Amino acid sequence: MNVLFLTYPYPNYVPDLLLHGLRKLLGPAVVDYPRKDSLYRGEIFGVAPEDQLISRLFPPEDTAIDREDIAGKIEKGFFRYIVCDSRLVAETVATDGDRALMRFGGIRSIPLFQDETRPLPRGLALIDGNDYPFPIPPGPYVVCRRETDGTDGTVPLPMALPEEIWQWIHAYRREPKAYSVGFLGSNRPFFHGEDRSGLMEAIAARYPDSLLGMSAIPTADTPSPSGRMGRDDYYRGLQQCRVVLSLRGEGYDTFRFWENAACSAVHVAQRMPLYIPDDFEHGRSILRFSDADEMIRLIDMVLDGSIRGEWIVQESHRRLARYHTTERRAAYFLDRMKASFS
User: Fold this and answer.
1) Which H or E run contains 124?
2) Residues facing residue 258 across a β-bridge
3) Distance between CA atoms of 111 and 122, rounded to whole angstroms?
4) Whether the Cβ atoms of residue 246 and residue 222 lie closer than 8 Å to each other
5) Is 46 left (phi over 0), alpha (psi -120 to 50) or beta?
6) Does residue 156 have a cis peptide bond before it, meaning omega lies within 30 degrees of 0?
7) Is the CB of residue 110 less than 8 Å from the CB of residue 6?
8) What is the mean predicted confidence (pLDDT) over 296-322?
9) Separation of alpha carbons 196 and 174, rounded Å
C-alpha cells in the first residue's frame, strides 16, 4: 500500500500525528510531500525551542522516501490514498482576535490538482485538525475531523500519542509523588468562552501541594515565555502528581489529554462534546467531570483512597496502548478509508 501525504509546512497536531502513525505502520511507502521538515526536527508543539523537541520522532535520514515524479505517480494510480492537511485548501478571509477565519479554497487550489481537465484521483482524504470545525463542502473525498461529535458526516480523528513520547513519560514512572494535582498549561482565554484562572485558584486553595502553572502561548518572538517548562521537566513533574488534570483548550481535543493518559497518575478530565473512537471509560480508565464541584469531589475520592487510583491508571495505560497510540490511530484511519472507498 502506497500513501501520499501532502503536508503543510508548519506543525499541525492531527495531520502530523497521523503521518507519524502511518510511517510507523507502512514505513517508506508513506511519502510526505513536500518533506515535513518540522517532524524530522522533532517538532510537535508549534514553536519549539530545543527543550521542546522530541528526539528520534522521525528517523534523521529518510533517503528511502521516494519523492520523485509525484504527479506522474498520481496519474498512474501508484498511491492508494492521498491525504491532505486541510490547511492546504484554506483561505484566510478575516481574523477574530487571535483566531483566523478561513474558507474552503477547493482541492483544485493544490498545485498537483490544478489541471481541471483531469479527474481528481480516487482515495482522497482531507484532515481537518483545526481547533474549531473548518467548513468543507461535500466532494469526492473523505473528511476526517478532530472537533466533531460524530454526527456531521465526517470521520472522527482525534489526536493520539507517539510511542516515543509515552516512553519519555514512562521513564519517570518511579518518581516519588510530591503533588496532589498537576496542571501546567497556557493562560490564554479559550475560544469556547472559558477561563482557567478561577479554576486554578480553587484547586490551589483546596490542594496547596499541587503542581500548577500557566504561561503565555509561545511565539516566534518569545519561544520560551516566562513560566513555561521544558518538556523533560514537564513530564517529570506530571509523574510526581497523584492526579493529572485535563481541561479544554482552544479546541476541545488537546494533546495534554493524551499525555495525561500515559502518566502514572489518575487522569481527571473535563467532559467534552467529542466522539472518540474506543474512548476511555469513566470510572474505569478515566474520571470525567462537568463542573468544578464534581471535579473536586472526584479528586477528593482519589486522594482519600475511596477510588482505586492504581487500577484506573492501569486501565488507562491498557486502553491507550490498544487504541490510542499514533500507530493504532493510523490503523483506524486506514480501516475507515477502506470502508469509504471499497
Assistant:
1) strand 124-128
2) none
3) 17
4) no
5) left
6) no
7) yes
8) 97
9) 30
Q: What is the pLDDT of residue 95?
A: 66
Amino acid residing at 103: R
Give the three cell numbers for residue 103.
474558507
pLDDT at residue 279 above 60?
Answer: yes
Scanning the chain, the segments in alpha helix (DSSP H) are 13-26, 37-40, 70-75, 163-170, 196-206, 231-238, 255-261, 292-303, 309-323, 326-341
Neighbouring residues of 163: CB distance < 8 A, sequence distance ≥ 6: 24, 325, 326, 327
What value does the CA radius of gyration of the chain take, rounded to a whole number of Å? 21
Using the Cα atoms of residue 21, residue 22, residue 24 and residue 28 in order, give the sign of their dihedral: negative
C-alpha span between 215 and 90 (Å, rounded): 30
Strands, sheet with 30-33, edge to edge from the N-terminal-most edge strand: 30-33, 3-6, 81-85, 124-128, 142-145, 155-156
291 contacts 202 by C-beta, under 8 angstroms: no
Q: Residue 144 in contact with residue 154, Cβ under 8 Å?
A: yes
More confident residue, 58 or 246: 246
State how beta strands 81-85 and 90-96 pair: unpaired
- Sign of the C-alpha dihedral computed for residues 278, 282, 285 and 291 taken in this order: positive
Q: What share of the chain is helix, strand, coil (3-state, %, to 5)?
A: 35, 20, 45
Nearest to 79 by CA among 139, 128, 33: 33
C-alpha cell, 276: 472518540
101: left (phi over 0), alpha (psi -120 to 50) or beta: beta
Q: Fill in the amino acid letter for 237.
A: G
pLDDT tens sequence across 238-254: 999 999 999 988 899 99
Contacts of 171 (CB under 8 A, 6+ apart): 235
Which of 250, 292, 6, 263 has the alpha carbon at shortest distance from 124? 6
Whether pLDDT at 36 is above 90: yes
Q: How far apart are CA 283 and CA 309, in angstroms?
A: 10
